[in-house]
């Protein structure tokens, strides 16, 4: 579908400036979906901004994952509700209306103003995803992450997904405060396409697109993710591409914020290296999620390249097909790759191999 004014945020400071602009620019409705809100300077700022908009008469809704709200720290819900913000937790563990779904997390991130402007990507609403928080002890340092904003029909499609998530979380019919939105167009390779994934989808389009694109890649696959614990099919798609001469580059943090994921990834990384793929380790934490295939596809959003994102989480990705847009994401990843060091695969001893296997066995549920 047509894309209006795509802007990729160069760094956390630019991302925060854009987020403030989208929130401040809302004149009728403001819808926010996030996995967590931090107990820090950034979380406090967002709470104040949403409170202010609600007090101005803007219809504000906040959807936070039922597990993520506790991971963020301090709960801001009472203050927000008192100001008129409509707050909803998605599948809270102890009182979820969705029986059997307490381990299914809503990992989508969207801030949508007036159904016409969307801010999205991989950033949660906490300080480390933007510019850090020096006031905390120990201080939060800023991570590298990827976010972007746009308008047009694609923003309307994001809002439609928010509506569906809100209805699922509240077990209600369509909210009367929002105007009807146009029916989504069929999947097309023109411009860009919003692609949700998760238990609420009949078809796993994100996963299918990833696999088919890797099998059809001709020149290059360039990817970045904080956690790389792929299933056998996705790993095979990447290694076969490398073996047939496709340049495969994977950018990871040398040390992520999830130790078990770091342990679990090495078997896949050894297989990637043996196939001729290049794995790069960035000294800093990178939380971005993106994959670029040749000059034809950039797929980016909230989904990590791991089994939880593929098969358990409610995720969202956006596929960009215009070469100019694909190039923007390719250059963003490449600029960070140049700061990374190559990964050196080492044969594991028996104990290491046992520990990796055990962690991979449980990592799917983490």
Descriptive overview:
The protein is globular and about 60 Å long. Helix 6 runs parallel beside helix 7. It has two domains: 167 residues, Endonuclease Chain A (Endonuclease, Chain A, 2-Layer Sandwich), CATH 3.30.870.10; 172 residues, Endonuclease Chain A (Endonuclease, Chain A), CATH 3.30.870. About 4% of the residues have low confidence. Strand 5 and strand 6 form a beta hairpin. Helices cover 36% and strands 22% of the residues. It contains twelve helices and 17 strands. It has 366 residues and is α/β, with parallel strands linked by helices.
Task: Walk me through the topology.
Blueprint: E1 4-8, H1 12-25, E2 29-34, H2 41-55, E3 59-65, H3 68-71, H4 77-82, E4 86-90, E5 110-113, E6 117-121, E7 147-151, H5 153-170, E8 192-197, H6 205-216, E9 220-224, E10 228-229, H7 232-243, E11 247-253, H8 259-264, H9 266-275, E12 278-282, E13 290-293, E14 297-301, E15 305-306, H10 307-311, E16 315-320, H11 323-337, E17 341-342, H12 350-363
Parallel strand pairs: 2-3, 3-4, 9-11, 10-15, 11-12
Antiparallel strand pairs: 1-7, 2-5, 5-6, 6-7, 8-16, 9-13, 12-17, 13-14, 14-16
């Amino acid at each position: 579908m047509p894309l209006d004014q795509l802007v990729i945020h160069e760094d956390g400071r630019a991302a925060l400036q854009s987020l403030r602009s989208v929130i401040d620019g809302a004149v009728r409705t403001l819808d926010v979906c996030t996995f967590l809100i931090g107990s820090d300077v950034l979380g406090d700022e967002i709470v104040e901004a949403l409170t202010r908009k609600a007090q101005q008469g803007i219809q504000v809704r906040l959807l936070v994952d039922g597990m993520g709200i506790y991971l963020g720290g301090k709960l801001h819900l009472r203050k927000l509700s008192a100001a008129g913000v409509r707050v909803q937790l998605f599948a809270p563990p102890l009182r979820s209306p969705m029986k059997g779904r307490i381990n299914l997390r809503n990992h989508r991130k969207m801030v949508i103003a007036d159904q016409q402007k969307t801010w999205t990507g991989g950033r949660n609403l906490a300080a480390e995803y933007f510019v850090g928080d020096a006031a905390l002890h120990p201080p939060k340092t800023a991570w590298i992450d990827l976010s972007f904003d746009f308008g047009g029909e694609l923003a309307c499609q994001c809002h439609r997904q928010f509506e569906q998530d809100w209805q699922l979380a509240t077990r209600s019919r369509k909210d009367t405060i929002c105007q009807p939105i146009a029916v989504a167009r069929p999947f097309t390779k023109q411009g860009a396409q919003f692609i949700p994934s998760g238990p609420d989808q009949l078809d796993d389009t994100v996963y299918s697109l990833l696999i088919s694109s890797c099998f059809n890649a001709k020149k290059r696959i360039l990817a970045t993710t904080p956690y790389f614990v792929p299933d056998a099919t996705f790993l095979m798609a990447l290694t076969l591409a490398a073996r047939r001469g496709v340049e495969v580059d994977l950018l990871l943090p040398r040390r992520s914020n999830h130790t078990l994921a770091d342990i679990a990834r090495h078997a896949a990384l050894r297989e990637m290296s043996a196939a001729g793929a290049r794995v790069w380790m960035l000294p800093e934490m990178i939380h971005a999620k993106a994959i670029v295939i040749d000059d034809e596809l950039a797929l980016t959003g909230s989904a990590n390249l791991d089994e939880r994102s593929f098969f358990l989480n409610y995720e969202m990705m956006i596929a960009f097909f215009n070469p100019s847009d694909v190039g923007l994401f390719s250059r963003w990843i490449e600029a960070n790759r140049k700061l990374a060091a190559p990964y050196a695969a080492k044969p594991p001893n028996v104990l290491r191999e046992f520990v990796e296997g055990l962690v991979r066995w449980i990592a799917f549920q983490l």
